Amino acid sequence: MRPARVVLIGPECTGKTWLAGELAAHYGVPSAPEHAREYVERHGEALTYADVEAIARGQRAGEDAAIARAEAQ
Q1: Neighbours of 48 (CB within 10 A)
Q2: Helix (H, G, I), strand (E, B) or coil at 33
């Protein structure tokens, strides 16, 4: 069975990262960090619509890697 993916969205500094970690720990499931934050740190804050696909691909890759690590344990 393929694992469900839960996405938390909202404004900056509202506790999404903390909540994701708490939920993952509570349910004993893997969690992936927000790729957009890392992407902005690498590419600067002047992002455009053209960056959306790269951010989405990076997020998905991070989620897939977290799932693979959890399944290997």
Answers
A1: 6
A2: coil
What span, in angstroms and rounded, lies between the C-alpha atoms of 19 and 69?
A: 21
How far, in Å, are 34, 45, 65, 68 from residue 30 at the CA level? 13, 29, 9, 9
Whose tokens are 């600067």? That residue is: 44
CB neighbours of residue 32 within 10 Å: 19
The predicted-structure confidence for 7-59, as pLDDT tens digits, reads as follows 899 998 999 999 999 999 999 999 999 999 899 999 987 899 999 999 999 99
> How many helices (H) does the chain have, and how many strands (E)?
3, 0
